[in-house]
Amino acid sequence: MKKAKRGSVFFVDDFLRFGSSKAAGKALERLVMRGEISRVARGMYARLKKHEIFGEIQPTVEEIANAIAKRDKARIVPTGVLALNALGLSTQVPLKIVYLTDGSARIIKIGQRTIKFKKTSPKNLATIGAISSLVIQALKEIGKDNATDDEIKIVLKQLEKEEQYRLEQDIKLAPEWIRIIMRKALKKEDYE
After folding, report:
1. Between β-strands 44-46 and 9-11, what pairing exists: parallel, antiparallel or unpaired?
2. What is the pTM of this model?
3. Alpha carbons 11 and 1: distance in angstroms, whole number
4. From residue 148, how far is each of 88, 126, 135, 180 by CA, in Å?
5. For 12-148, where are the alpha helices, taking DSSP H only?
6. CB neighbours of 183 closer than 8 A, spacing ≥ 6?
7. Cβ distance 153 to 171 under 8 Å?
8. Helices (H) and strands (E) in the chain — how many of each?
9. Do 175 and 135 touch, CB atoms closer than 8 A?
10. How far apart are alpha carbons 116 and 88 in whole angstroms?
11. Angle at Cα 186 formed by Cα 185 and Cα 191, nearest 5°?
């Protein structure tokens, strides 16, 4: 654990080569009691980042979700208000975060916040661009014919950061009304 960078999330399962699940859990609890690590959620621990002003900083809900996805070898895509927030379309910070996944459906409680992993079809996880997948989910949250001109401008500005080939691939996976918006981000010579 000391070799891992600060902010890393660990699971009891990561230490099963050293003993049983019960023994690993007990050892981790002892480290928590000594203040060397922090318990993030049931069965999850972290070596906290240190900030000179704020002190120890807990991992973000997104970091925890990504650690769970990595452990489970599952794909995840943020949806709803989280996607809107990540793109700058909303300042609202959701207490209930929902990810689409091909892994196990479950709900994990972290303090006052929850992470919900919602099982979905492979098509919803087939996107290859981080930004374009967020755009698709954010526009789905806004709804057809509800996106304002300002929201579309923000989306197109964000899509400029996406690699063209990823954007081209992901446009094919979006509903038609979202494709129309996303195509505006393509370089003109690519689709004329």
Report:
1. antiparallel
2. 0.82
3. 11
4. 14, 27, 14, 14
5. 21-33, 61-72, 80-87, 130-142
6. 171, 191
7. no
8. 8, 9
9. no
10. 22
11. 140
Dihedral of CA atoms 47, 99, 120, 181 in degrees, nearest 10, equals -130
User: Distance of CA 62 to CAs 66, 126, 145, 164, 167, Å?
Assistant: 6, 20, 29, 26, 23
Q: Which two tokens stand for residue 63?
A: 């970091």
Tracing tokens 């409680």 back to the chain, one arrives at 109
Residue 93: which pLDDT band, with cuts at 50, 70 and 90?
confident
Write the pLDDT tens digit of every residue in 97-149.
999 999 999 999 988 889 999 999 988 899 999 999 999 999 999 999 899 99
Question: What pLDDT digit, counting tens, does each position of 63-74 carry?
Answer: 999 999 999 999
